[in-house]
Specification:
2 helices, elongated, Nucleotide Exchange Factor Grpe, Chain A, domain 2, about 20% strand, 3-stranded mixed sheet, alpha+beta, 3-stranded antiparallel sheet
Amino acid sequence: MNSDVNDTDAQPDGAAPESAPPEGATGEQTRLAEERDQFRERLLRTTAEFDNYRKRIERDRKEMAERAAESVLTEILPIIDDLERALAAPEAGAEGYRRGVELIHKQLLDVLTRRGVTPIDTEGAAFDPHLHQAVSSEASADHREGEIIEEFRRGYRLGERLLRPAMVKVATA
């Protein structure tokens, strides 16, 4: 900066200096004061624009999550209707209930498949800590070390991402 610029326009309490150049200011001081004011105005405008952008992105993210949830719930509602009809039906016997539950199970699996959810295969697979949760182990001469012997709870993926690991029993030597 110019050596003839003094610090008289700085405020003692830390407040911003006045926007007008000091009286008797040179042309250079006046130009610098105007430039400072332009930068301050640009900073305030950019800060406000960024704040509005952040709020808009957050609102859009929330709306997108609500639309996704609405879409899944709309697919599940017919399954709930089937469950309610099954519960309201006169006694159909164990076989009738079994067929109804199988149909509803198939409907749920179809919804999951349409949404990109796939079950994790465990039968005869080698234990993978990224996909499986070993809840027990058992010595077995019929299985190789680390082979999954039994599945207690099925695991699922959404695309390549793990939704829930499969709970399994693993063979030991």
